[in-house]
């Protein structure tokens, strides 16, 4: 009996040792610090960067080590506390910036009808140019004759403008500038009587000048040389008509205005200068010749 009991106790010893080893291993694992991680999700390619340049840069800048397992979007951070904190902050800032950009994206569908071939262009040349010039993302739906534009508000607006240009049968200009006219009077100066001035500038420079009703600027389009020449003429024209002089009325405002405004209207028509009453003063604006007439 005594021998049987001894053998039984001896059999228990390996199992007890195995239990002790497992317990020690579990305690050691519990003592290991938890590895900080960030799930990069859809921003994984951006954080890695082309050829790994972004993630390498973060590691060099912070001295932390970043590891992403195959087929995983979780990034683990290794190093001392400061290095890990700085690396995590750098990664999070990239994610936040990308998310903010996504949040600002708007989407608009433009119906182009039978003009879709003109918008796409030969071998997609036109649609590629629209994409490059606007910075927007364009997706063509040929069966429905629509183009979906995605991007920020400015990119979408520019893409729509370019699409409309191609739909109208003309490519977008190489150069485009807006010249501020300052006021309704500026519009009148640039237009000239019956549009003679604006036509003259277009004929001499080859640029296209457009003024929308209610807008205080003129759009100048063409190649670089044409636009530069037209803008120079516009600036010179506006400068010449910007001469200003103030004259005291000495209490004769009523006489200057005249009955039903006949006198002041006559002064404007005869000299071409703008005549504005400001308190007890008359402000004259125009060419120096017109103001001093």
From TrEMBL:
The keyword Repeat applies. Pfam families: KH_1. Gene3D superfamilies: K Homology domain, type 1 (3.30.1370.10). GO terms for molecular function: RNA binding. SMART domains: KH. Keywords: Repeat, RNA-binding. The keyword Lyase does not apply. Residues 1-31 are annotated as: Disordered. Residues 27-96, 103-168, 173-239, 241-293 form the K Homology domain. Residues 1-20 have a biased composition (Basic and acidic residues). This is K Homology domain-containing protein.
């Amino acid at each position: 009996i005594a021998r049987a009991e001894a053998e039984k106790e001896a059999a228990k010893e390996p199992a007890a040792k195995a239990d002790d080893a497992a317990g020690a291993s579990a305690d050691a694992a519990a003592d290991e610090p938890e590895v900080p991680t960030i799930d990069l999700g859809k921003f994984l390619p951006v954080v890695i960067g082309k050829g790994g340049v972004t993630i390498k840069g973060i590691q060099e800048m912070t001295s932390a080590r970043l590891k992403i397992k195959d087929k995983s979007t979780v990034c683990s951070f290794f190093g001392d506390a400061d290095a890990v904190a700085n690396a995590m902050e750098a990664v999070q800032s990239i994610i936040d910036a990308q998310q903010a950009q996504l949040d600002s994206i708007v989407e608009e569908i433009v119906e182009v009808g039978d003009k879709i071939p003109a918008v796409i262009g030969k071998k997609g040349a036109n649609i590629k140019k629209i994409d490059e010039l606007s910075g927007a993302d364009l997706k063509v739906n040929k069966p429905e004759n629509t183009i979906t534009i995605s991007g920020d508000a400015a990119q979408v607006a520019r893409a729509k403008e370019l699409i409309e240009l191609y739909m109208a049968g003309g490519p977008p200009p190489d150069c485009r500038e807006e010249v501020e006219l300052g006021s309704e009077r500026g519009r009148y100066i640039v237009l000239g009587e019956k549009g003679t001035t604006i036509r003259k500038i277009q004929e001499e420079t080859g640029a296209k000048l457009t003024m929308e009703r209610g807008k205080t600027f003129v759009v100048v389009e063409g190649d670089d040389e044409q636009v530069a020449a037209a803008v120079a003429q516009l600036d010179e024209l506006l400068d010449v008509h910007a001469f200003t002089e103030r004259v005291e009325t000495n209490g004769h405002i009523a006489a200057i205005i005249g009955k039903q405004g006949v006198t002041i209207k006559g002064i404007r028509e005869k000299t071409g200068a703008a005549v504005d009453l400001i308190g007890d003063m008359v402000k004259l604006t125009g060419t120096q010749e017109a103001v001093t007439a």
